[in-house]
Amino acid sequence: MLLTSLLSFGQLIxxxxxxxxxxxLLGNSTWTNHSGPNGNxxxxxxxxxxxxxxxxxxxxxxxxxxxxxxxAFDMTVQDPGNPITGTDNEYFAHFKDSGSGFFARVDLSExxxxxxxVIGISTISTEADVTWPTDLTYGTTYRVTVKFDQxxxxxxxxxxxxxxxxxxxxxxxxxxxxxxxxSFALRQSDSADDETILIDNLKVAQSFNETSLSNEVFxxxxxxxxPNPTNTGIVNIASSNSDEMNIQIFDMLGKQxxxxxxxxxxIDVSNLNTGIYLVKITQNNASTTKKLVIR
Length: 295
Description:
Blueprint: E1 4-8, E2 12-16, E3 23-24, E4 32-35, E5 42-44, E6 47-51, E7 56-61, E8 68-77, E9 90-97, E10 102-109, E11 118-122, E12 130-131, E13 141-149, E14 154-159, E15 169-171, E16 181-188, E17 196-205, H1 208-211, E18 223-226, E19 234-239, E20 245-250, E21 256-262, E22 266-268, E23 275-283, E24 286-294
Antiparallel strand pairs: 1-2, 2-17, 3-5, 4-7, 5-6, 6-17, 7-16, 8-13, 8-17, 9-10, 9-16, 10-11, 11-12, 13-14, 14-15, 18-19, 19-22, 20-21, 20-23, 23-24
């Protein structure tokens, strides 16, 4: 399963890698439309693509939990041809209660110092209550982590953080009422700049550590699968460790289609059909799983 609703020891609630065929996100796993036309929010090359040229609000439900709750995802903003403007304030990710309450809203705002955009956070407002102090760049992937305190009704955001004590921004724009969070939502709506935001590796949890990709055996900085997507018939898997790696490749039905031990950091995938696969990399009794797109 690509979506995992676990509540493992009160920690991990859900994970989503968006490893579905290209097309509407709605209809995959338990994603549910709660506003706008069905099917506009798409999956493209194994990522959710929030394109603000059309509208759809969609949520991933889970069981309510008390106290602090977190979500985190990888975010890449594609270049719409100009920096985000001051009129663009459009939130695109948030928690949702059982009704129409949206909390811990993440949005993009006008850059501060000549960059492309900044990321912002509010608790209930439609525009950011506070923004990240540094401009961000189109085409660069950032890890966004958000905490929502359901008791104090306060939201906090980190960018590329490794621990909860790293720098963050805090939104205090909400009245003190209990939200009762039961889903994570993505929001796609018309905005002043019709940028596309790519979302991947979503985690929802009750702790900061459980939302981090660094709790996998390999951190992003220590290995790389390339080219990805590929149409060359060969995939290279680079690791900071030179030991042998066992590579298992699974199709979207969970069937293993390849199993090989490699020492030269490359594997032949020429016999695999076009599509999205999961690659499990095992090295020295530790493992991680990544997506592979074959075109």
